[in-house]
């Protein structure tokens, strides 16, 4: 038979006076009473403390070392207790790395979502990466139709200058007879090229065959071999028209050699080396050469020494910049601030970043900062670094822009076109924006099905947080900067849909700081936890919450020494009918909160006068406060 009650006998924690009470399990229980009456002593220091202590005893001593085990409470006995989770307003020092997203577990589900349905893009070309299975390659070959003659190639050298003789020797050793060098098929011992330095692409001819329905297995074997040779890439050459289809077993850019591993959830966390920016190790901050110090005076020209260490006096480095700017149609005599933006980027960050700012093509330069980095890395002694150290400063990591993620990870998007979003964009959204973004995602039918599970979990948590008025928080907001009420509701969201059952949840004034309108939704959520087979015990003053409870425990009658007794307990109606219960009297309307003690006839008879206050933004304020009266100072924030 299921245990239906938690039986507390002889509780004496703090000011409790031998309290014995039966609390129904699997119900919504509110512990109420005046401040200091012993509500928290009963709910947190007795019920929760004992539940947590017993749970700790059931786990290994190793696991126990990682828990804050509470002292055994002063109580004769408690029966029918289950493992307990306290959701208080004061969390135990959350780390700087915990955020709204991590505490609510939304981050975990987002990682799964990105890993499962995220589309990786090339960070340089901004085109989606493609990958194919061996069966896709075989299908493509078969679709050319019976009788078509094809070649299966393995691109071992792509857009890189390699020594063709070495490649040919290596492939001959592995038993391959033919290569395709810059589009021309030849045997390994008779390369067609005369200019060895000008070779750009070499493919190994893995197979040549005529397509027949029976060729399926052979095609698969050949594609497999081709993929193995090149690290995943294969090509299908249709000999009848010379057309080529390229495939990649891994995600690869169709326009360059950029590839990434298969996506895993771990990649979408900057707390994990797989996802963290390798330069700042996921902190977003790095000690690096600061462009604002390297360029010491923007009014000077480069020739006059605008860029530290690159003035006319440093002849070799100066000459390089002079030639570079001359090729770009500019002059080193122009003041730094008058150079076009792309030219300043070109000088500091090199041609790749400058291209994005509209620099002409063909200006090869790696940039002053990169040169300084190299010199810094090569500097053997402290004395060699001294001059350079002055140009370094801890600042936002320029590799990840302070976003902490690896660029490979930042280039993975959910959805397509204008609605696409990466992990950084999503984390910087408010909960309400994120909900809208996820709903409007354009996903293929297949992706939609895969995404359903994690999407549902995210929707549930965000929905709850918006319902209790927290839609304005961003996912990346640090947990330690939240107010007590916010933090408690955030942690509650982590429990929603965690599907735990048989748990005793103990909450500390869950309505604190909550707008009246959001209160009903919070109550509904707590009841949902109960419906999932849990017991919820909340310490609470709010009338609406008390009325919504299945069972009320009224502590009192006074505070401190005058409290610590069980005044009344039962359903809200039973407590209302109990003549001993102060809470019941208010709930039933027999007593009312009243502030009507008359208005002072002449409040300004005696005053405290402030003359000409100018603190902060005050503009010479003079004002009288009545003595012996309550005054209210109000105004916009
Ligand atoms: Zn690319
Ligand atoms: Zn970084």
Structural features, described:
There is one protein chain. Among the domains are: 5-83 and 502-588, P-loop containing nucleotide triphosphate hydrolases (Rossmann fold); 134-249, Ribosomal protein L1/L10, rRNA-binding domain (Ribulose 1,5 Bisphosphate Carboxylase/Oxygenase); 285-396, ABC transporter ATPase domain-like (Helicase, Ruva Protein, domain 3, Orthogonal Bundle). The protein has 637 residues and is an alpha+beta fold. The longest helix is centred in the C-terminal third of the chain and has 23 residues, at 445-467. β23 and β24 form a beta hairpin. Bound molecules: zinc ion (ZN) (2 copies). One zinc ion (ZN) binds at residues 277, 279-280, 284, 397, 399-400.
Ligand kinds = zinc ion
Can you count the beta strands? 24
The rough form would be described as extended
Neighbour order of strands in the largest sheet: 5-19-20-3-21-22
| Mean pLDDT metric | 87
Rg value:
36 Å
Unreliable runs: none
N- and C-termini, Cα separation: 58 Å
CATH superfamily of the domain at 5-83 and 502-588: P-loop containing nucleotide triphosphate hydrolases
Write a short abstract of this structure.
33% of the residues lie in helices and 19% in strands. With 637 residues, the chain is of the alpha+beta class. Among the domains are: 5-83 and 502-588, Rossmann fold (3-Layer(aba) Sandwich), CATH 3.40.50.300; 134-249, 2-Layer Sandwich (Ribulose 1,5 Bisphosphate Carboxylase/Oxygenase), CATH 3.30.190; 285-396, ABC transporter ATPase domain-like (Helicase, Ruva Protein, domain 3, Orthogonal Bundle).
């Amino acid at each position: 038979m299921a245990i239906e009650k938690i039986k507390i006998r002889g509780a004496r924690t703090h000011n409790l006076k031998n309290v014995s009470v039966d609390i129904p399990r699997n119900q919504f229980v509110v512990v109420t009473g005046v401040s200091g009456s012993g509500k928290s002593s009963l709910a947190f220091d007795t019920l929760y403390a004992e539940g947590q202590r017993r749970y700790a005893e059931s786990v290994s001593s190793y696991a126990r070392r990682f828990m804050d085990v509470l002292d055994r409470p002063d109580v004769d006995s408690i029966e029918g207790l289950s493992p307990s989770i306290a959701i208080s307003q004061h969390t135990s020092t959350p780390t700087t790395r915990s955020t709204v997203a991590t505490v609510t577990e939304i981050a975990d589900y987002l990682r799964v979502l990105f890993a499962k349905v995220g589309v990786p893009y090339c960070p340089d070309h901004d085109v989606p990466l493609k990958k194919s299975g061996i069966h896709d390659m075989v299908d493509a070959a078969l679709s050319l139709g019976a009788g078509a003659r094809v070649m299966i190639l393995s691109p071992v050298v792509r857009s890189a200058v390699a020594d063709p003789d070495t490649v040919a020797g290596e492939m001959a050793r592995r038993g391959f007879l033919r290569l395709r060098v810059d589009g021309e098929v030849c045997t390994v011992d008779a390369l067609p090229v005369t200019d060895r330095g000008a070779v750009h692409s070499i493919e190994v001819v893995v197979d040549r065959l005529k397509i027949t329905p029976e060729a399926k297995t052979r095609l698969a074997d050949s594609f497999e071999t081709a993929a193995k040779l090149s690290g995943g890439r294969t090509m299908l050459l249709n000999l009848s028209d010379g057309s080529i289809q390229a495939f990649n077993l891994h995600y690869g850019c169709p326009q360059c050699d950029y590839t990434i591993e298969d996506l895993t959830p771990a990649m979408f966390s900057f707390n994990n080396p797989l996802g963290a920016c390798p330069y700042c190790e996921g902190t977003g901050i790095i000690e690096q050469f600061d462009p604002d110090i390297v360029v010491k005076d923007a009014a000077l020209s480069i020739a006059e020494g605008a860029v530290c260490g690159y003035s006319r006096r440093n002849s070799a480095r100066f000459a390089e910049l002079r030639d570079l700017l001359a090729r770009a149609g500019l002059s080193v005599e122009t003041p730094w601030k008058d150079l076009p933006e792309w030219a300043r980027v070109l000088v500091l960050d090199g041609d790749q970043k400058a291209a994005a700012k509209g620099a002409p093509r063909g200006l090869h330069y790696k940039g002053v900062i990169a040169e300084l980095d190299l010199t810094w890395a090569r500097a053997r002694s402290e004395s060699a670094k001294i001059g350079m150290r002055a140009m370094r400063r801890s600042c936002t990591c320029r590799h990840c822009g302070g976003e902490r993620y690896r660029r490979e990870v930042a280039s993975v998007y959910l959805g397509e076109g204008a609605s696409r979003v990466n992990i950084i964009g999503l984390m910087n959204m408010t909960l309400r924006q994120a909900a809208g973004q996820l709903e409007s995602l354009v996903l293929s039918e297949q992706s939609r099905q895969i995404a359903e599970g994690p999407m549902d979990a995210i929707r549930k948590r965000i929905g709850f947080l918006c319902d209790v008025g927290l839609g304005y928080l961003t996912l990346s907001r640090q947990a330690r900067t939240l107010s007590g009420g916010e933090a408690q509701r955030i942690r509650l969201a982590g429990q929603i849909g965690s599907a735990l059952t048989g748990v005793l949840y103990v909450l500390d004034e869950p309505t604190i700081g909550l707008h009246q309108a959001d209160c009903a939704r919070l109550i509904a959520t707590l009841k949902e936890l109960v419906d999932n087979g849990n017991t919820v015990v909340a310490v609470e003053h709010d009338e609406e919450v008390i009325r919504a409870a299945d069972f009320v425990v009224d502590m009192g009658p006074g505070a401190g020494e005058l409290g610590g007794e069980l005044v009344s307990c039962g359903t809200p109606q039973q407590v209302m009918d109990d003549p001993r219960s102060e809470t019941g009297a208010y709930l039933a309307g027999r007593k009312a909160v009243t502030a009507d003690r008359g208005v002072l006839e002449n409040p300004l008879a005696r005053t405290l006068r402030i003359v000409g206050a100018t603190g902060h933004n005050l503009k010479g304020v003079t004002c009288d406060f009545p003595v012996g009266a309550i005054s209210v100072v109000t105004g916009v924030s």
